[in-house]
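Hi R.,

Here's the input for the 2-acetamido-2-deoxy-beta-D-glucopyranose complex you asked about:
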Amino acid sequence: MMHRMLAVVFLAAARAQNCEDGQTCSPQHVSPNDMGILMQMKSGSASVSHAHAHANSSSIGTYVEQVVNKVTALGGSHQGNVELAKEEVRKLALQLAADPNYTVFNMSQSGMQQAFQRIIDEMEEVINDTLVSLDKDHKEFDIMIANIRKCGLNLAASNVSVTEMSPAVMQLGLNHDVCRNVSVALRDANHSAQVNYYGHMTNANIPDCAQNFAPGTCPATQDYSLEAFYDNAIACAASVDAWAGPFHTTATSLRSTHEAAERAVIAKYQECDQAQLTYELGFCTYRTELIDACSALDNCYSSAVDVFQKTKELILKSNTSRHVAFIAARQVQCYVRVLQTDNLTMAAIEACDFTKVDTSPLKLTVPSVPGKPACDVSLVAQHPCGAAWVAKHYQDSSKYWVAQKMNHRTCMPCLDQGGTLQIDQILPILESARPEEAGNSFA
Ligand SMILES: *[C@@H]1O[C@H](CO)[C@@H](O)[C@H](O)[C@H]1NC(C)=O
Ligand SMILES: *[C@@H]1O[C@H](CO)[C@@H](O)[C@H](O)[C@H]1NC(C)=O
Ligand SMILES: *[C@@H]1O[C@H](CO)[C@@H](O)[C@H](O)[C@H]1NC(C)=O
Ligand SMILES: *[C@@H]1O[C@H](CO)[C@@H](O)[C@H](O)[C@H]1NC(C)=O
Ligand SMILES: *[C@@H]1O[C@H](CO)[C@@H](O)[C@H](O)[C@H]1NC(C)=O
Ligand SMILES: *[C@@H]1O[C@H](CO)[C@@H](O)[C@H](O)[C@H]1NC(C)=O
Ligand SMILES: *[C@@H]1O[C@H](CO)[C@@H](O)[C@H](O)[C@H]1NC(C)=O
Ligand SMILES: *[C@@H]1O[C@H](CO)[C@@H](O)[C@H](O)[C@H]1NC(C)=O
Ligand SMILES: CC(=O)N[C@H]1CO[C@H](CO)[C@@H](O)[C@@H]1O
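And here is the predicted structure with 2-acetamido-2-deoxy-beta-D-glucopyranose in place:
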């Protein structure tokens, strides 16, 4: 008796709940026919005759059958329908449980087992749909994470050094410094060779007597006899002869040494100017590649993350509706099993509560977004021929060749974004640069 009272209260509460939901208010939802059957069920007597019992059992059977047909029609993949189906079956279970006369109706013999099984199967399909959808969402996450990672792979495949200055470009800078270093010694060698050569020529030390030879003649002096004069001329010629050979040998040697030294230093300057140009072009090429690579990474990464975030929002919504459908489907199966097994106790009905449904198969694992790989354009913030770049690479007196006041050629600036030379960068450089073909000055 206690049991029954409880059940009736529970049923009322369930109906009130349905009305609040705005889904299944009893007046609209339970047809007049259903209500009639319900009335019959409720007015049925515990001590009915066999005939009566049979007749009322049939009525209960008809009612159950109607609900089951309705639920079968409501079943399927639509999640809202699963919720409605759940309400119908739950209500049926509650109504039957509330009626002590129900015991005269044996559900397991009602010939509705097939219909029950169909509902259970349909709910299994709904559940399978949610699991398939979960799997699809996990695969979607995998693809999106792979796409984000691909941005980093593209960057690595570009072979551009993105976290430190390109070693190849640094090597070009070193080549240039080494060349200028070597040119210091060649410049000094040329200077000494010229000093030696000019010194030899300006201090010729021609024997004094040679001054007495007028052009094309022997020296003519009235004081001497012709013989004495000739003897003097021959003696003078001997001293000039002794002087001229070594003078000539040394002079030609010093001259060719100086010429060789000058050729060598000129060749080295040209080589160093070329090394400088190669360095500047190499730097600018690297700069363009780095900027392009970092900007490609930015675009790739931000759009891949954007896709991830937007899709994640959809997936989270889908997660919520999956849970609703999954739980409702499991509850429908639970209520139907209560009916199927003639186990219409409140304990059995309450065991079908949504809180009792195990949703662990629906666990959605949201991956975390892989971080953006480093790509550092600040490595090329200073570049040819910005003042800071030139100061660091060509004007830093801690460099041997700079301290030795070796000049460099006019810096070739990088192309700007539009592909043109940045003339305003050249002008200040021109002033500090070595004028074309002018000799290097000494300290
Ligand atoms: C059960 O059936 C008996 C006899 O048919 C009837 O007297 C009684 O009121 C019924 N009980 C309910 C709760 O409908
Ligand atoms: C229902 O029918 C089954 C099978 O005939 C029987 O075992 C069971 O006791 C019956 N239950 C009731 C409540 O009559
Ligand atoms: C649901 O999935 C399980 C396992 O994936 C499978 O065995 C079963 O046949 C499926 N049921 C339906 C109704 O699709
Ligand atoms: C990157 O470097 C590797 C090995 O040094 C080379 O095999 C590959 O072709 C390079 N890729 C590009 C795009 O330059
Ligand atoms: C240039 O020469 C100086 C002095 O010999 C030396 O200390 C320095 O390492 C050299 N620099 C390079 C780049 O070779
Ligand atoms: C060689 O040295 C001399 C003397 O310092 C200088 O005048 C001349 O310009 C130098 N030659 C070159 C090519 O630098
Ligand atoms: C998926 O939905 C369930 C039920 O609303 C919730 O408990 C769970 O936290 C959600 N999962 C994620 C990853 O948000
Ligand atoms: C009936 O329901 C109760 C409560 O959930 C459960 O413990 C019992 O096993 C069920 N009996 C059958 C035959 O399903
Ligand atoms: C006792 C009782 O209410 N019996 C009912 C059983 O069902 C028939 C109709 O099928 C009614 O006429 C009886 O009154």
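One thing worth noting: Residues 40, 43-45, 48, 52, 55-56, 59 surround 2-acetamido-2-deoxy-beta-D-glucopyranose (ligand 9) (CB under 6 Å).

Cheers,
M.
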